[in-house]
Write a structure and sequence with these properties.
The protein is an alpha+beta fold. Helices cover 46% and strands 13% of the residues.
Length: 110
């Protein structure tokens, strides 16, 4: 399972606030076990991914915190020119499974 071993419990305050650090670790836990592609998934941007993470962890996720968590978890990104968003190599099927788990946990209709 996901462990924070080797991860700093409290990143420097000038890098992340305590609240953002908590969100970072929760997003890392959500990303744990998701498959990485050899190419970028251009079906969804980091902005869409952060919203999926928000639904799953029931908390606001800043775009930059999502990107930092994805990088920390071993995913790669490419910035979208002229945008603060990026594409990531998270597999679409992994995202669909994660969304289904969130929907079932929340009692949403699919």
């Amino acid at each position: 399972g996901f462990t924070t071993r080797g991860m700093r419990a409290h990143p420097k305050k000038d890098v992340l606030s305590d609240a953002d650090a908590e969100t970072f670790f929760r997003v890392c836990a959500w990303l744990h076990g998701m498959a990485a592609l050899k190419h970028y998934n251009r079906h969804i941007t980091s902005y869409g991914l952060k919203h999926a993470a928000e639904d799953a962890i029931e908390s606001y996720v800043p775009n930059g915190v999502f990107i930092a968590a994805a990088l920390h978890c071993g995913f790669t990104i490419t910035r979208i020119p002229g945008s603060p968003n990026c594409y990531c190599n998270i597999a679409q099927r992994a995202l669909q499974r994660a969304y289904r788990r969130t929907a079932l946990a929340r009692g949403w209709t699919l």
